[in-house]
Amino acid sequence: MYNTQAVLTNNNEIILNYLIETIGCQMNVCESDWLGSVLSTYGMSRVSSLSDADIVILNTCSVRYQAEQKAFSYLGRVEEFRQQNPDTKIVVTGCMAERLGLKIKQRFKSVDLIVGAKDIDITALKIIDLCNIEAEKQEELNIPSDIARYVTIMRGCDNYCSYCVVPFVRGRETSLDAEIIVKKCSLFVKNGAKEIMLLGQNVNSYQYNDVKFTSLIKKISTINGLERIRFMTNHPKDLGDDLVSVMATEPKVCSHIHIPMQSASNKILKAMDRKYTYERYLELINKLRNVITDVSITTDIIVGFPGETESDFEKTLKAVKDIRFGGLYVFRYSPRPDTKAFELIDDVPLEEKKRRHAIILKESNKISVEIVAAMVGSMQQVLAERFENGVIEARTRGGRKVFVKGGTGKDLGKHLNVVIKEAKINSLFGDVV
Ligand code: SAH
Ligand code: SF4
Ligand code: F3S
Q: Which of 61, 229, 47, 39 is nearest to 149 (CA)?
């Protein structure tokens, strides 16, 4: 264990090990990775097990009650560890840190530092300060050489969907500087990245000065060595023809798009303040499918929103059957303090929410099995992301995972043409041509 006055010598004799545990969306994963890179420039070293950690950083999510419960149970475990290891520092960051702030400390007294999601830029500095490190910051950022990387392009959200806590914990929507985003992407590519996933709560409304989302994509696509661009999430109300056409014409942009539908009942969509109707949503899906023939469309659905009757639910189920999404996430409605819907009576009983959830999941799984079965025998272009035990782990342009035989470690980061031999619900198996 280090003492809190630890000073890093020039040759890093004392190295602090930090563990980052991340709950929540890709944005949190992205921010945890970035935080890790910054801490590493101060000579700290990332570890993956609690027993090795001098500093435990928990990056939290508030989107559903369950996500917060997960953080609490993790903190319970960390507090136990701390009893045996009193020098361990405990840091809580992210959306729940923003929402609950010091209230977290009332329950978990040994938490040393709480930094909310809105203060993401100063998190690393606060941690450095907490650890009393007098280290020279290195010039070069320590960037892992992952083949697929996330890059956040905007923060916050202005949409205030009636169920959602994100605008409260992440603040107003702000688009980040386009030039800095391009530089960051180039840096990742220089370090071996071949695929960039651009992240924002609503990437369609990205605008920095006169750079809109589609112009940002075009700028990024000029980066030499970058093979693939993905992005998420899209709000149906803002998804314009310009993006559809960039997806169709720009070869680096993958043919996958995530467009949360939430519900197919116009009454519920209105109560959710989603600002589109199911008919409008369907139009968008049809347009995408007409213009981009191999497009894979995935979605999010909430069941059991206040006032959702059996007939509202049937509409959503029918939409799932009709649209045949490439994949979907389905959530049971969870009332969140501060949101508009929190005022409504949460009138769909838990058992009923569970039933609706299971029905959507079952239908979606059935469709997924049919979609992947139809891919057997087809040729897919995949990007090789990992190599383990003689098998390459790769992804199709539509985002499906493929385990590939017949390649070597030298294929990592390359596009391979693969014939699909076998299909399971969440993964395909194929051979290099
Ligand atoms: N900005 C993204 C969503 C981020 S939250 C978007 O609008 O696409 C991810 C998903 O969590 C949402 O799409 C929604 O389906 C679900 N979600 C958000 N708040 C929820 C709540 N209170 N209860 C249940 N699911 C919720
Ligand atoms: Fe939440 Fe709606 Fe914003 Fe998505 S668009 S983060 S669901 S408020
Ligand atoms: Fe993401 Fe959860 Fe925050 S979904 S934005 S980590 S509330």
A: 229
One of 3.40.640.10, 3.30.750.210, 3.30.300.30, 3.40.50.2300 is the CATH number of 145-254, namely 3.30.750.210
From the CA of 124, how far away is ligand 3's center (Å)?
19
Dig out the tokens for 132 from the structure.
């009393």
Q: Of 323, 344, 210, 208, whose CA–CA distance to 272 is shortest?
A: 344
d(CA 336, CA 98): 14
Model confidence pLDDT, tens digit, residues 197-247: 999 999 999 999 999 999 999 999 999 999 999 999 999 999 999 999 999
Query: Which CATH architecture is the domain 379-432 placed in?
Result: Beta Barrel (2.40)
How far is Cα 426 from Cα 230, in angstroms, rounded to an integer? 19
- Give the integer Cα–Cα distance in Å for 414 and 310: 48
Residue with tokens 């045996």: 84
Supply the pTM of this predicted model. Answer: 0.94
Read off φ and ψ for residue 381, nearest 5 degrees: -90, 120
Asked whether 347 and 307 are in contact (CB, 8 A), the reply is yes
Among 96, 204, 232, 302, the mutation site with the greatest number of ligand 1 atoms within 8 A of its Cβ is 302
Instruction: Give the whole-angstrom CA distance, residue 77 versus residue 57.
Output: 13
218/231 Cα distance (integer angstroms) = 13
